[in-house]
Amino acid sequence: MINSAFTVILLAGQRPGVDPLAEHFGEPFKALIDVAGQPMLAWVASTLAARPDVKRIVILAQQGDALLDHPGTRWLRDEARVTVRDSGASIVEAIAGTLRSMPQAYPFLLTTADNVLLDDAMIDRFKVGADGADIAVALVERKVLEAAYPGNRRTWLPFRGGAYSGANLFWLGSPEALKVLAIWRRVEQQRKKARAVLGAFGIGLSLMIALRMLTLGGAVARVGRRLGLIAKAVLLPYAEACIDVDKPADHAMVEAILRARASQPDPEL
């Protein structure tokens, strides 16, 4: 295990209104949906809390205290490294505010409560790949997922040489990452305006990506140069890294994977 310590930002909020998946399972919050015997938030938080290299876990949610009232997450109240912050109306502003309030806590690992299959191997591989970056994003190549789970449907980002899906893991390695969050906030505010998205990264770069003229690494490097920072895309060789819980079908799949993991013998015994 890599020993360099980091701070975690764990996103556990939801968009305004009723979350369709939470409603489907009869829960007030998506993060509390039960998966294989415990809430999604508990799965992710327990993986992170078990790591000695995690300095602190900051849970961002609109009603964080209510999330920790659940029997399956109440243990987080007694975890000294866990704090809860209000995410408000803008998750981007909440992330940026957390970074500004904790300037000595870099680097940050950002993930989500529905990233239930997150494990140590994924985190360790991502840390190694993100080393030295101001900002990094973890992705899984399409052929990796389809080899393990044929027919599984994800949202794919097409580049020259391959298509990739996000793994809900981000590395915020220095205050330079705030530059990316500022752009993200601008796009968030004008997400229905294509011109705003194009303008955020430059029309030329956007067109090259749209026409698949750039590889994933090339596109990320160009974004970094444009913003004056070091940006990296880290490919993970684990199909499960890009399977989060957004739909009932995802829920069933993740439950099956977790139950299969639980039935495997402990290699240390």
From TrEMBL:
Keyword Transport recorded: no
Transmembrane segments: 196-221
Molecular function GO terms recorded: nucleotidyltransferase activity
Boundaries of every MobA-like NTP transferase domain copy: 22-143
Keywords: Magnesium, Membrane, Transferase, Transmembrane, Transmembrane helix
Name listed for the protein in its UniProt record: MobA-like NTP transferase domain-containing protein
Lineage per the UniProt record: Bacteria, Pseudomonadati, Pseudomonadota, Alphaproteobacteria, Sphingomonadales
